[in-house]
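User: Structure with NAP, tokens only please.
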Amino acid sequence: MKLKNKKVIVFGGTSGIGLETIKLILQNGASKVYAISRNPTKVKIKQKQLILEKADVLDENSLKSLFKKIGKYDVLVSTATGGERAVGPFLKMNMQGYRNSFHKLWGYANVIRYGIKNLSKNGNVVLVSGSPARKPKPGFVAVSSAGGAVEAFVRAITHELAPIRINLISPGVIDTPMSPLKGKARKDFYKNATKDNIIKRAGTANEVAKAIIFAIENEFITGTTIDIDGGWILS
Ligand SMILES: NC(=O)c1ccc[n+]([C@@H]2O[C@H](COP(=O)([O-])OP(=O)(O)OC[C@H]3O[C@@H](n4cnc5c(N)ncnc54)[C@H](OP(=O)(O)O)[C@@H]3O)[C@@H](O)[C@H]2O)c1
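Assistant:
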């Protein structure tokens, strides 16, 4: 599907990978792009095709009214993390933190459950998981579990959604505002986190966004996961 003159919704389109995706969608000539998150005012791009909306993917009622307001559309993307994630060893983990890591799954499930009705039959959905789902490393039990659940969810609903296509992008370590670290601490963090990868650097949000555009445009893929990970899986 070409994006020219299409109407696109991006949950999480206000930061990092989602924001880069919004920029590429606008460059590709979409007629309307909705960037949605809990605090969309952080987006500073001014373009008449871009509409900022406030919604929490965990709030089913606000999603129902949002989709009603938007009406028919062509592409649904969600990069929304859902909120906090727990890191570190499972046996020392706060169990509420572990459970909260699944907010990503609930957010994705909600936007599909309430958003699919108005999505064009030749439209498509793109969600984002993460490399720990496919290759867990120590300290990543919570994100691995939630990401694994997201991947199973996508494969499980692919038949049901057809002819609408659905695909997942699985990023490795990507330099985005998700990490609050600054300066040298940030540089050291990304260096250390990617030292065993084949490509020893963090990816950029733009490199992941390009894969999201590929998944939107390529009409022969559905139910699949595309790794954009600098070789995390083979590390
Ligand atoms: N960065 C990485 O290294 C990396 C690696 C693997 C996978 N990923 C995945 O890639 C996706 C994008 O990550 P990112 O790095 O771009 O993160 P980011 O810069 O922190 O952006 C996350 C976006 O999600 C929105 N969001 C979070 N919770 C939300 C909620 N409950 N309702 C609505 N919007 C919500 C945030 O906006 P508000 O705060 O305004 O709501 C923000 O726009 C996520 O699914 C993440 O798990 C990232």
